[in-house]
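Data deposition worksheet. Section B asks for the primary sequence of the deposited chain exactly as it was used as input, without tags or linkers unless they were present during the calculation. Section C holds the resulting structure in token form. Section D is free text for depositor observations; keep each observation to a single sentence. Incomplete worksheets are returned to the depositor.
Section A, Depositor: J.P.
Section B:
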Amino acid sequence: MSRVIMYNGFERFWHWSLSVLILILLVTGFNIHGTYQIFTFEQAVDIHIICSWLLMGLLVFVIFWHMTTGEWKQYIPSSTNKLIAMMKYYAIDIFMGGGHPHHKTRQSKLNPMQRLAYLFLHVAITPVVWISGLLYLYYPYWDSFGLAGLSLGTIAMIHTAAAFAVIAFLIVHLYLALTTSKEPLGYLKAMIHGYENE
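Section C:
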């Protein structure tokens, strides 16, 4: 095994920037909904809108980076057999000391379950968050967009449901990142300094 840069500087930058922005959006979003009050309603709305635009801008750069570097290939689902092996690993083998069925390399960082999870995040959850959030933001202009038949309450519920999907993804992501590495907090450390064993 050799120690290699698994995550380059830009990957680490966008990962941590994305994480901070998403956490701020979740905190301010639930503040806006009245779940708790850390900020005034107006402050929460302002912070939420600013961070939303920052997140969308960052994601445009991230998508461009993925397309120009070929990193988008990391998210293409692999064979069903490998997916079943990963499901068995997470359900049984990890608790029984079984070996990991996926060998992580720079060219294949994500195991089959991660590929599906990230693909679902990118093609389903993220677009729902963006579209519902933009509709919510531009509610006063719905008539001029020909969207007068939409319900603001429905859009708010869709946006909130997408936020809960993001929370579920984050919980599973953090749990696996913090508990499944061979060394304590190994995956977290790798996302800080970039190095991991290949």
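Section D:
Residues 3-197 form a domain with the Fumarate Reductase Cytochrome B subunit fold (CATH 1.20.950.20).
The helical segments are 9-32, 41-69, 80-96, 112-137, 142-145, 152-179, 186-193.
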